[in-house]
Design a protein that fits this description.
The chain has 2 domains: 44 residues, no CATH class; 37 residues, no CATH class. The protein has 3 helices and 2 strands, in the order αααββ. The protein has a two-stranded antiparallel sheet. Strand 1 and strand 2 form a beta hairpin. The protein is flat and about 50 Å long.
Length: 90
């Protein structure tokens, strides 16, 4: 386990992450979730692709429109598709 941590730390350093942000998963969380699910035998509980798509869309909106992104609505259509209903900027 220590070896895994050291490898992960080296990878994050090579990506230029400052030490105070080393704990953040961000885009690495998806690989981490798959790894945990496989190790625990819960692959069937992994989030559907639509969840990652929504996460990335909302993350971009949170950075670009911090005042209004929370008012957006998301409708999940199926495992791979969703519809974003943007809040009006009145």
């Amino acid at each position: 386990m220590l070896q895994e941590w050291e490898t992960d730390l080296a990878c994050r350093k090579s990506q230029g992450l400052p030490m105070h942000r080393m704990h953040e998963l961000e885009h690495l969380q998806w690989t981490y979730h798959v790894s945990l699910a496989k190790d625990a035998g819960f692959v069937h509980l992994l989030p559907k692709p639509v969840i990652r798509q929504i996460y990335e869309e909302v993350g971009g909106r949170r950075k670009g429109l911090p005042q209004t992104y929370r008012e957006d609505e998301v409708v999940i259509i199926d495992d791979d598709n969703y519809k974003l209903i943007q809040a009006s900027n009145d």
